[in-house]
Amino acid sequence: GEDLAADEPGLDAHARKDRGPVSISSRCRAERGGEKYISRKNRKETTTMAMEYSEKVMEHFAHPHNVGVLDDANGVGEVGNAKCGDIMRMYLKITDDEIIEDVKFQTFGCASAIATSSIATDMIKGRPLSEALKLTNQAVVESLDGLPAVKIHCSVLAEQAVKAAVADYYKRKGIPYEHPCDGCEEGCCGHDHGHAHDHEEE
Ligand code: FES
Which of 8, 78, 86, 116 best tests ligand 1's pocket when mutated (most atoms within 8 Å of CB)? Predict the structure, then answer.
């Protein structure tokens, strides 16, 4: 759809002027009641564009926190969204007493994926691993004051990327680890569950 953004690296958020302003201006036009002047041909597109992004989403999209690569990461997770092809990579630096000392991410994806990665890294930085593993996409979405329903699937990436990075940390340490990928049956977090099928996240 219009949010297929795998070819637009999330790192370059500032260069992506197209999304936020378009949806805001479309919304303003709709609020003024301008919708009835839009031709039938354009109506579908306008309805789709007028997605309601919270201020927090726009803020984290425009100025994402913790972007980049952690050279001394000891847990790295990469996950892909089967639905849109977007990719998120999460780098964790975990101390011996299992505190997430530092975290960075790279997201090659849509505005919602970038915003959710950004706020998710804020939520786990400095926290114990056990807490980070409890991070749910619902909690991430709530911290962003919500996401449009059709964008909820984008928020799943952040939760999965954290879990994949933690799994990688335990693997590197040689510690047996029960993978906590609730409901994920396709190995979307890089963990091989032994089978693959389409994900329907929405
Ligand atoms: Fe792919 Fe949002 S459209 S993560």
Answer: 86
Mean pLDDT of 77-101: 94
Give the position, in ligand 1's atom list, of the atom nearest the Cα of 6: 1
Neighbours of 57 (CB within 10 A): 26
Best-predicted range by mean pLDDT among 63-67, 173-177, 179-183?
Answer: 63-67
Report residue 45 CA to chain centroid gap: 24
For 201, other C-beta atoms within 10 Å of its C-beta total 17
Q: Are 60 and 92 in contact (CB under 8 A)?
A: no
pLDDT band at 192 (very low <50, low <70, confident <90, very high): very low
Confidence of residue 10 (pLDDT cuts 50, 70, 90): very low
The residue to which tokens 């786990």 are assigned: 124
Q: Determine the Cα–Cα distance for residues 116 and 201; give it in Å rounded to an integer.
A: 15
Answering whether pTM is above 0.85, one says: no
- Report how far residue 98's alpha carbon sits from residue 140's, in angstroms, rounded to the nearest whole number: 22
Distance, CA of 80 to CA of 109 (rounded, Å): 10
How far apart are the C-alpha atoms of 69 and 83, rounded to whole Å? 25
Tell the residue number behind the tokens 């302003």, with chain if given: 21
- Which pLDDT belongs to residue 179? 65
